[in-house]
Amino acid sequence: MAKLHSFTSIELESFVFPSSIKPPSATKTLVLAGAGVRRLEIQGNIMKAAVAALYLEEKAIESLIVNWNGKTDVELLDSHEFFNEIYNGPFEKLIHVSLLVPSTGKFFSEAAAEKIVKAWKDNGTYNDEDAAATIEKYLNIFKDENLVPGNSVLYTILSDGSVTVNIAKDGIIPAAPIAVLENKKIGYMFMKAMFRKDDGTVPEARQSVASRISGFFNKRESSRVS
Fold first, then answer.
1. Rounded distance, CA 221 to CA 215, Å?
2. Is 100 in contact with 49 (CB distance < 8 Å)?
3. CA gap 196, 189 in Å, rounded
């Protein structure tokens, strides 16, 4: 299995993503696959709005070896198939977003929902009634929230594709999620909205995931040879 210590912590904009974490809704400890800065264009200016990270089960890293061992970080970065294996894998995942600037919950959730709906439609499985109920529930989670720098939103994607949502303030992650999005397609859509190649919300995180996983494969091969 992948070793927890093979994946180090990442510091971005003074926020440190630990090398591993066990979010309240997960049954396993997850390792830090990659992270990056989320940038937004507001009134013609590009600003750093948040930092975001992806955590995966150890067995997810190991399962990727079968098809992707020996590939370079550039090959992984450019591969839709590689990231689709991550999106669709039957293992737990965590998307951890920490804000760098203040945001209303309404703005935060609507910006994410727009990307999720686009990914859903592009995937060809969008259903108005089904999706509307899920997106409405998601928007309602944040409608009364005012998020400040340092607040974090954690999306734990369970092995069946459903998503639990937590909001962490003052570094404290609540033991129970504030909501569960039970639609089994929504976890895939969260992942795709964040990591899709051409217009994902955090392209730096996609690059980081490709680099770190390729690096892990290389270290693994080197240790086997030696």
1. 10
2. yes
3. 10
Determine the structural domain holding residue 150 and report its residue range: 4-221
Alpha helices by DSSP H, 37-127: 58-68, 73-78, 80-88, 105-123
DSSP bridge pairs for 163 = 157, 181
- CATH code: domain of residue 140: 3.50.70.10
Residue 140 lies in a domain: yes
Domain assignment present for 28? yes
217 assigned to some structural domain: yes
pLDDT tens digits along 117-170? 888 888 788 888 778 889 999 999 999 999 999 999 999 999 999 999 999 999
User: Hey, what amino acid is at 216?
Assistant: F
| Prediction pTM value | 0.92
Which of 92-96, 106-110, 125-129, 209-213 comes out lowest in average pLDDT? 125-129
